[in-house]
Amino acid sequence: MNGHIIELNLNDRGLEGSLPPEIGRLQYIQKLSMTGNNLSWTLPSELGSLLDLSELDLKSNNFFGTIPSEIGELKSLTKLSMSSNKLTGTVSSQLGNLQQLSLLYLWSINLSGTIPSEMGELTSLTELQMNTNQLTGTLPSHLGNLQQLSLLYLWSNNLTGTIPSEMGELTSLTVLSMSTNQLTGTVPSHLSNLQQLSGLYLWSNNLTGTIPSEIGELTSLTELEMNTNQLTGTAPSQLGNLQELSVLSIRDCSDDIAYSATDQ
């Protein structure tokens, strides 16, 4: 035994106050979890000194200020969770340095600005959740590089522009949720490449055009929600191929849309 702390779990302990800069002295720590407390103040830049850290979970506290760019120095990280805090600022491009990152949770922390193209360098990601923020701008085509991604949650932001065709390259996706944004353009037929998809959520955007018949090729779908858009045309008969479907919501679109027998 060398006496070095390699794991520290202080979840749900009612902790208050700040995270002290002395945390940076735990140079051998690999897992740090302090979720569900009342910790506040800003995150110390000294977190960037914990170079052996593989998991950092600080969700459900009251931290404010920005995410320190020094977090981008933690190149051993596989999990980073700072969700449900009072953080602000933008998504740092420095996060693109975290090549080992598998799980990234930054939901409900008032992030603004655009999604940096460097996010496309996180090719080990399996789950990316940045929903319920104030993100703006377009979806970077570089997200199509995330070939291992199974969950992508970007709902409840202010994203604009079209859904890039590169999203059809995320063939490991099981859930794609981009509802409650300001996305425009058509639903790309390339989404039919996502054969593992069980949930597709695009409701409450400004999507136009018709529902592509290729959606009927997503035979693993259990939930399909595209209501509250500006879609027109006829619901394609190919939706009848979705034998696993339990939720289908395509109403509340343009008055011009028509519904076939597949809309039940």
Describe this structure in words.
There is one protein chain. With 264 residues, this protein is an all-beta fold. The chain is built from no helices and 17 strands. The chain has strands at 7-9, 16-18, 31-33, 38-40, 55-57, 64-65, 79-81, 86-87, 103-105, 112-113, 127-129, 134-135, 151-153, 175-177, 199-201, 223-225, 247-249. The strands form four sheets. It has an eleven-stranded parallel β-sheet, with no helix packed on it. It has a two-stranded parallel ribbon with strand order 2-4. The radius of gyration is 21 Å and the shape is elongated. The N and C termini lie far apart (64 Å). Mean pLDDT is 93; it is low at 258-264.
What is this structure, in a nutshell?
By secondary structure, the chain is mainly β. The protein has strands at residues 7-9, 16-18, 31-33, 38-40, 55-57, 64-65, 79-81, 86-87, 103-105, 112-113, 127-129, 134-135, 151-153, 175-177, 199-201, 223-225, 247-249.
**Total E-strand runs:** 17
What structural class do you assign from the helix and strand content? mainly beta
Mean pLDDT: 93
Widest sheet: strand ordering: 1-3-5-7-9-11-13-14-15-16-17
Major beta sheet, specifics? Answer: 11 strands, parallel
Instruction: State the share of residues found in helices, binned by percent.
Output: under 10%
Instruction: Compute the number of helices.
Output: 0
User: Taking Cα atoms only, what radius of gyration do you get, to the nearest Å?
Assistant: 21 Å
Indicate the low-confidence ranges by residue numbers: 258-264
The rough form would be described as elongated
* Proportion of residues in extended strands: 15-25%
Distance between the termini: 64 Å
Query: What's the SSE pattern?
Result: EEEEEEEEEEEEEEEEE
